Structures are given as structure tokens and as C-alpha cells.
From TrEMBL, chain A:
<dbReference type="InterPro" id="IPR003593">
    <property type="entry name" value="AAA+_ATPase"/>
</dbReference>
<dbReference type="Pfam" id="PF00005">
    <property type="entry name" value="ABC_tran"/>
</dbReference>
<keyword id="KW-0813">Transport</keyword>
<dbReference type="InterPro" id="IPR017871">
    <property type="entry name" value="ABC_transporter-like_CS"/>
</dbReference>
<protein>
    <submittedName>
        <fullName>NitT/TauT family transport system ATP-binding protein</fullName>
    </submittedName>
</protein>
<dbReference type="GO" id="GO:0016887">
    <property type="term" value="F:ATP hydrolysis activity"/>
</dbReference>
<comment type="similarity">
    <text>Belongs to the ABC transporter superfamily.</text>
</comment>
<dbReference type="InterPro" id="IPR003439">
    <property type="entry name" value="ABC_transporter-like_ATP-bd"/>
</dbReference>
<keyword id="KW-0067">ATP-binding</keyword>
TrEMBL record, chain B:
<dbReference type="GO" id="GO:0005886">
    <property type="term" value="C:plasma membrane"/>
</dbReference>
<keyword id="KW-0813">Transport</keyword>
<dbReference type="InterPro" id="IPR000515">
    <property type="entry name" value="MetI-like"/>
</dbReference>
<keyword id="KW-0472">Membrane</keyword>
<feature type="transmembrane region" description="Helical">
    <location>
        <begin position="125"/>
        <end position="147"/>
    </location>
</feature>
<feature type="transmembrane region" description="Helical">
    <location>
        <begin position="249"/>
        <end position="270"/>
    </location>
</feature>
<dbReference type="Pfam" id="PF00528">
    <property type="entry name" value="BPD_transp_1"/>
</dbReference>
<keyword id="KW-0812">Transmembrane</keyword>
<feature type="transmembrane region" description="Helical">
    <location>
        <begin position="217"/>
        <end position="237"/>
    </location>
</feature>
């Protein structure tokens, strides 16, 4: 059996838009190892979200193979939970009800065989409430929570069925900088505790380095993997590491590479000329 | 560490502060007391002007009766002319037409808003029919269903159904994709997604659609009671026209308006009760 748990082999995706074909992904190859924390960065349009959604089974690919434990992925599954940027919580359910949402589903209800299973599940819901610091908000509705709190609920809900993979699509993109730092340490804690494999898409390079064990840098037109970086930081992270030379050096390297591959350049001379002539 | 420099002392300048009116702030807020006062004023003002106009003797009572005459007519209608019967039969017709339309339109709207093939097949057709004037169907309806209660209910049905389907489909389509995809990645089946996510999520919007289309059902009442009727508020208005009983026309129109307003408030109350989790 293959050691890696997700194998992406020569995956491509095209879709038609206004009488031309757009190549969202070309020839993507990646082996995801168990318990990895892979972060995906890249200029907009590089296909990082598309790749994540293909792994989630929410989108299909056009060519190549994508294998989950040697089986082709066919649609979404309870082993791959997804956390979205926003609007994914159920506003008519309380925090606890949101977290326990999956308990109503047949796939999960079928795995319940005894009273102790039921107790274990409600114990898990409580544990997740605690882990996410939501104990005092158990009965609140999502509309009463801040954006950061809402994302905590979304993460807890995704973790509830004990997924092997946690797929996160810019989950902290809409949060302010301070809340985001708190969430970073929280998600690292979750990663250590739950031992799930996390695949994390972001546009924030600092976030990608701080969280990831491996960084996949993607480039647009066509969407492809440009380079992969191993993060030279110890497994246990803390905020001060962001100021260390190796962190900064890696950040500079990645930012430069994203700029080179983005295909969009700000011509400073051109701007200067424009503003000289302009009457402001 | 540098001590922060003390702020230079600024000479006290008397700033002329003219409080700005909070009334005309774009999407501003209003205290509930002021709001209630304005509502009372808005409802009472036209009646006051009407009363003043007739009290000054400016009106020809044949063309425009005063409020006193209309009130007298309502009382005599109630005491001698079977006002309750007229109200009940009209409420029955409107509600029967409306409920019949809702019973078919809501499930159809759910399918239309959920499945693209259904939308592609039916939406243009419904769009086409909805522009046909309901009034023009009267002769056909009489030919097909006769002149009993069925024909009146059918006219109201034709007037509301097609709008209702399209609005319900739109409500269903507005359910955020992230809510649906989150359920998919937790292993929800198609029927579970519809039952546990789409329907609960769209409920407030669907209730709003019912509230609005119920108002439209009332506007079709007079048209429906054109059909070989001998009872009902709409019929009473039409008959009063024949005898130039303008006070009765006024009374009938005002009564329909009042019943409509009460129904509308009932729907709003129901919405506030049932969907208390909504942000307001």
C-alpha cells in the first residue's frame, strides 16, 4: 500500500468560459503524507482553492488521477471535512447544534451501535466546545458571535466526525490580524491533538510559514505547482519565531517568487511618470 | 526604551459644533417611539385630510362621500346587509386560492431552485405565463370550471401561482453554497441536504414570499368576484358601482385594505416568532 494518504498525479482541470478554455490546473503532482500540515500559497488565479475543492470532492478534475488511500476520489466524504471562509454555519442552529449537526446524518448515525457511542459523541461535542473556547457560547446563535468565534464553531463542526483530513479554504481570510494570531495557535494545537492531516489554502505568506510543515507555492495561467518548501522550524511554534532570520528569509523568498509568477507587475517608473503629469 | 514625548499643549479653540440632524442619515436608525409616532401619523393623515375636505363641504357626496357617511354605511352593511358573510366568503376565496397556490408552488419552487434541469425546462414557461393577464382568463375559467366557487378560487390561483413559484425558487437559490457544501463534506446525502440545510435555511425568505403573494391574492379578489358572484366584498364593490353607492365602494376598498394589513402583520409576527435567531 502507498505510504501517502492522498496522491495527486498529473491532475489537470479545464473549464469553458466565454468561448475560450481556461486551464485552471495543469499537471499537478503532490503526495500528501499522514499528519502533514500543508499550506498552499500563490497569486490569485493559481488554482489553489480549486485543487483543495477537488480533494474535497466538491469539484471534478479533467485529467490525471487523485487517489485517497489508493482509491480514486468520488465526491465529498465524511473523512474529508472542509472549513470555508464564511457563511457556512447554520444560523438557525445554536453553537452546540451546529457542532452536532453531523450526528443527524445517516452515514454517521449508522456507525452508532450502542449507548456508549452516543455518550462518546456528546462527550466529544463538549470537548470540542472546550477546546475552541466556546463553552460560554454553547446556546448562542451564530448571528450573536463575532467572526472569529464563528470560525471556531465552523472548525469544531468540521472536527466533530473525526475526519482524517481537514481542508481549510482561507478560513481566517476575513478575520482581523489579532484574532487571526489567536486562531493560528488554536489550529496548531488542534493539529497536534487531533492528529489529522491539514490542507490549508491562504494568501497570507506569513500564515503559510507559521502553520505549515510544507508550503506548496502555486502559479497562475495555467494553474500549476511552482515550488515546494519545507519549513525549517521546529514542530512546536510560537509567535516570536516570526521574527527569526530564517523565517524572514523564507518569507522573502516566497514573496519574491509569488511576485515573479503572478504575471502582474507594478511598474514604479510608469507610476511616477503618470503622477508627474497628472494634476492632483 | 524611549519615553513617549509629551504632547505639545494645544491652545483651546472653541469648536463650533452644530449637531447634525439624524433624520436623513442614509439607512439611519430611529427610536421605536418616534417610529411608532410616524406610523400613526402616516396612517391618520390621509383620513384627516379626507375628513377635513368633506367637513368643509368641498366634496360632492355622490362622487366622494365623507368618512362619516362611509362609517355609517359600514354599520348598516354590518347590521342589515350581511357584512360578515361577505367578509367570510371573500376571506375563504382568497385563502383557498392562496393556499392551493402555495401547496403547489413551494415544492415546485424547491425543485426549480435546486435542480438546473428543472429550472431550464420550466422557468421560461412560467415566465411566459406569468405575464398573461389573469383577468383575461375569466371567460376560459367560466367555460372550464363553470361559475361555482371553483372558478373564483382558480382566478386567484392564476393571479398568484406563477409569481410565487419564481419567488420561491429564487429564495431556494439564495441559500449560501457554503452551507450546502459544508453538509456535503460531512457526508450528507442529497435528501438530507434538502431537508436539513436548504429548507431550514430558506424558511424566513419563503415566509416573506408567502406574505407578499398573499397581498397579491387579495388584489385579485375583485377580479375573481366578477365571475357570476352574488356575495363577497369584491362583489359588493362591483354592485355598489351599478347603483352609484360610492360610500359602499369606499367601505369595501377600505375593508379589503384593513384585512390585508392584518394578514400582513400576522405573517410578520409569525416570522419574528419562528425565526428569532435572525439578526435584525
Amino acid at each position: 500500500m502507498d505510504q501517502s494518504c492522498i496522491s495527486i498525479r498529473n491532475v489537470g482541470k479545464q473549464f469553458a468560459a466565454r468561448n475560450q478554455t481556461i486551464e485552471a490546473l495543469r499537471d499537478v503532482n503532490l503526495e500528501v503524507q499522514p499528519n502533514e500540515f500543508i499550506t498552499f500559497v500563490g497569486a490569485s488565479g493559481c488554482g489553489k482553492s480549486t485543487l483543495l475543492r477537488i480533494m474535497a470532492g466538491l469539484e471534478t478534475h479533467s485529467s490525471g488521477d487523485i487517489l485517497l488511500r489508493s482509491e480514486p476520489i468520488d465526491g465529498p466524504g465524511v473523512d474529508r471535512a472542509m472549513v470555508f471562509q464564511h457563511y457556512s454555519l447554520y444560523p438557525w442552529l445554536t453553537v452546540t447544534e451546529n457542532i452536532k449537526f453531523c450526528r443527524q446524518l445517516k452515514v454517521i448515525a449508522d456507525s452508532v451501535h450502542s449507548q456508549s457511542d452516543v455518550e462518546a459523541a456528546s462527550g466529544r461535542a463538549d470537548a470540542l466546545l472546550n477546546l475552541m473556547g466556546l463553552k460560554n457560547f454553547a446556546g448562542a446563535y451564530p448571528s450573536q458571535l463575532s467572526g472569529g468565534m464563528q470560525q471556531r464553531v465552523a472548525i469544531a463542526r468540521a472536527l466533530m466526525p473525526r475526519p482524517d483530513f481537514l481542508l481549510m479554504d482561507e478560513p481566517f481570510g476575513a478575520l482581523d490580524a489579532q484574532t487571526r494570531e489567536v486562531m493560528h495557535d488554536l489550529i496548531l494545537h488542534v493539529h497536534r491533538l487531533e492528529k489529522s492531516t491539514i490542507l490549508f489554502v491562504t494568501h497570507d505568506v506569513e500564515e503559510a510559514i507559521y502553520l505549515g510543515t510544507r508550503i506548496v507555492l502555486m502559479a497562475p495561467r495555467p494553474g500549476r505547482i511552482d515550488s515546494v518548501y519545507e519549513v525549517p522550524l521546529p514542530k512546536v511554534r510560537h509567535q516570536d519565531m516570526k521574527l527569526e532570520p530564517e523565517f524572514i528569509a523564507l518569507k522573502r523568498e516566497i514573496l519574491t517568487r509569488i511576485r515573479e509568477t503572478s504575471g502582474v507587475q507594478t511598474d514604479l517608473d510608469q507610476l511616477a511618470r503618470l503622477s508627474e503629469g497628472a494634476v492632483l | 526604551m524611549n519615553a513617549p514625548a509629551p504632547l505639545p499643549e494645544t491652545p483651546a479653540v472653541a469648536v463650533k459644533h452644530k449637531p447634525r440632524s439624524r433624520w436623513w442619515v442614509v439607512r439611519g436608525s430611529l427610536s421605536s417611539r418616534t417610529s411608532a409616532l410616524l406610523t400613526a401619523f402616516g396612517l391618520a393623515a390621509p383620513f384627516f385630510i379626507w375628513w377635513l375636505y368633506s367637513a368643509l363641504g368641498l366634496n360632492d357626496p355622490l362622487f366622494m362621500p365623507g368618512p362619516g357617511a362611509v362609517l355609517e354605511r359600514v354599520i348598516s352593511w354590518w347590521q342589515e346587509d350581511g357584512l360578515w358573510d361577505d367578509i367570510w366568503i371573500s376571506v375563504y376565496r382568497v385563502m383557498a386560492g392562496f393556499l392551493l397556490s402555495a401547496t403547489i408552488a413551494l415544492p415546485l419552487g424547491l425543485y426549480l431552485g435546486t435542480y438546473k434541469p428543472v429550472q431550464a425546462t420550466l422557468e421560461p414557461l412560467i415566465d411566459f405565463i406569468r405575464y398573461m393577464p389573469a383577468v383575461a382568463f375569466i371567460p376560459l375559467v367560466m367555460l372550464w370550471v363553470g361559475i361555482g366557487e371553483g372558478s373564483k378560487i382558480l382566478i386567484i390561483f392564476i393571479g398568484t401561482f406563477f409569481q410565487m413559484v419564481l419567488m420561491a425558487a429564487e429564495d431556494i437559490r439564495r441559500v449560501p453554497m457554503a452551507q450546502i457544501e459544508a453538509a456535503q463534506t460531512m457526508g450528507a446525502s442529497r435528501s438530507e441536504i434538502i431537508r436539513l440545510v436548504v429548507l431550514p435555511s430558506a424558511r424566513p425568505a419563503l415566509l416573506d414570499t408567502l406574505r407578499i403573494t398573499c397581498g397579491w391574492a387579495w388584489t385579485y379578489l375583485v377580479v375573481a368576484e366578477l365571475v357570476a358572484s352574488n356575495s363577497g366584498l369584491g362583489y359588493a364593490i362591483l354592485r355598489a358601482q351599478r347603483y352609484m353607492h360610492t360610500d359602499k365602494i369606499f367601505a369595501g376598498i377600505l375593508l379589503i385594505g384593513l384585512i390585508g394589513l392584518l394578514t400582513d402583520q400576522a405573517f410578520r409576527w409569525l416570522g419574528r416568532r419562528a425565526f428569532h435567531w435572525q439578526k435584525r
